[in-house]
Write a structure and sequence with these properties.
The protein contains 21 helices and 6 strands. The chain is rod-shaped and about 140 Å long.
Length: 502
């Protein structure tokens, strides 16, 4: 009986000791854990926790409201001073992962909802800091947009994104209609056909051009003053902040890019459009006149002249035409020869092969006829409002006459013997073949051989002698005398007006 009575009394004393320990520990430390209570032999930790009215129950223990308030104060102070705080800066060491999520929620609930964002790693960052960081990226966003506005791949990505956004907007606007529409065959309860037809299809989102990757943003953030003063301890903190900023940075970048595109695609005045069209038609018909005279040259020389025409006149025509097409199709082409392909993604599907062929011709081609064919196809009225046409006979004669007058004026004023020979040979060639001459300097000798072949002996010998003097001057071996320059001018004029041999 005594043994039985002792056995009944011992647990009572033991429980009292346990309660005394838990009360003391909780009062002094503001928390209790299930593990430590079980280590003290307490089999019902959560029952013990329920005794404390101010205790906040957690999966692995409890926390006093006073301790929670202290944690909230630490977080508020850090967010106010540095703009961010990591979990390790305030979380209780005894807490397990399952406790952390609930405590973060409790701490955040005490803060203004629109003033803080929680990071995936349970760190926190103030909205004010995020706004400041976005502002600090401003110059970089503007600079990158200005540079990328001439990048064909980025512009193609922007166009696909804008087109997809436009289609999505149209599908939403044209979504379910109100009353009306024919009933289906299923009877009165049949679904309206026009409602079925107008439901937007679910398509995969089209990614637009982006500013920087999350890793790149994090690298930039590391150099900002906010994180130089208070360097994050956790490896992923800057990446997590970068992920929060990325969507807004991408949006700011796309808006800046669109603004740059608008600047580069502003419509020209009607007077400027007419002037551009006149320039284009003049270049187009000049190339046609140059092509007419190519057949008189042997193949090797003809090939050099064709490449020269493509690199000069044809390239100028292509740039001028692409500038007009870019305005029509709202493409920010800036006239850069190395960026001709910027326009291609903006052209109608059927026009793209012609545009590509044209670029190939002026960059690596050697056939003027192929260029003219591609150019004529691209400027077909189905693709552009630009009116490009071959001159009729009357206008062609006017063009030839204007070219002759221009060359005669240049012949009068030019002082360099090499240029004089080039101008004189162009005039004689125009007289003999009714075609324009546009050749590189290295081919002038070949041109003079061609034109002199049809001249009377006296003029041919004189021209060959003047050619020799011009070549010598170009080599620095002497200078053509003024009297001989006058002779060259006179010879060119006499041949053009038909006075040779009199």
């Amino acid at each position: 009986k005594q043994w039985y009575q002792r056995r009944e009394r011992v647990p009572g004393l033991y429980t009292a000791a346990q309660n005394q320990w838990t009360d003391s520990f909780y009062t002094q430390n503001g928390y209790l854990t299930v593990d430590m209570m079980r280590a003290k032999g307490i089999d019902n930790p959560h029952t013990v926790i329920s005794r404390y009215e101010d205790a906040i129950s957690l999966p692995s223990g409890c926390l006093s409201k006073t301790s929670l308030a202290s944690a909230q104060s630490i977080v508020e102070e850090a967010l106010s001073a540095e703009g961010f705080i990591e979990l390790t800066d305030w979380m209780f060491e005894w807490c397990k992962a399952e406790d952390e999520e609930k405590l973060v929620q409790l701490v955040v609930s005490s803060l203004p909802a629109d003033k803080v964002r929680v990071l995936p790693g349970n760190g926190m960052v103030s909205v004010d800091l995020l706004t400041s960081l976005l502002g600090q990226f401003g110059d970089q966003v503007t600079s990158k947009a200005a540079t990328d506005a001439a990048n064909p791949k980025i512009l193609a990505s922007l166009k696909k994104f804008d087109d997809a956004s436009s289609m999505l907007g149209d599908s939403v606007k044209g979504g379910k209609k109100g009353k009306g529409g024919k009933k289906g065959k299923g009877g009165k309860g049949g679904k309206s056909r026009d409602i079925e037809d107008d439901e937007p299809a679910h398509t995969a989102p089209v990614p637009g051009p982006t500013f920087l990757s999350i890793d790149q943003i994090a690298k930039e953030l590391a150099s900002f003053q906010a994180f130089q003063t208070s360097e994050p301890k956790e490896e992923d903190t800057l990446s997590e902040i970068g992920a929060l900023l990325k969507k807004q940075l991408d949006e700011k970048y796309r808006l800046a890019l669109e603004e740059e595109v608008k600047k580069k695609t502003q419509k020209s005045s009607k007077a400027q459009q007419r002037a551009d069209e006149d320039t284009i038609n003049s270049l187009f018909n000049t190339i046609i006149q140059c092509e007419k005279g190519l057949k008189v040259f042997e193949e090797a020389i003809r090939s050099q002249i064709e490449r020269h025409i493509l690199k000069t006149l044809a390239t100028d025509l292509t740039k001028a035409t692409f500038s007009v097409l870019a305005e029509e199709y709202e493409c920010p082409f800036n006239g850069d020869t190395t960026k001709l392909d910027t326009l291609i993604p903006y052209l109608p599907k059927a026009a793209k092969p012609h545009g590509t062929s044209l670029i190939t011709s002026v960059t690596s081609g050697s056939d003027v006829v192929e260029f003219l064919e591609a150019y004529t196809s691209l400027t077909d009225p189905q693709f552009t409002q630009l009116l490009v046409r071959k001159l009729d006979k009357k206008k062609e004669r006017n063009l030839v006459f204007a070219k002759k007058q221009s060359l005669l004026e240049s012949l009068k004023s030019e002082e360099k013997s090499g240029e004089l020979l080039s101008i004189a040979s162009s005039l004689i060639f125009l007289k003999q073949h009714s075609a324009f001459l546009h050749v590189p300097g290295r081919c002038i000798s070949s041109v003079l051989r061609v034109v002199s072949g049809d001249l009377p002996e006296e003029e041919r010998v004189l021209l060959e002698g003047l050619q020799g003097e011009g070549v010598a001057e170009r080599r620095g071996e002497g200078a053509m005398e003024e009297e001989r320059k006058a002779t060259l001018r006179g010879l060119g004029t006499d041949i053009v007006f038909g006075k040779q041999g009199e």
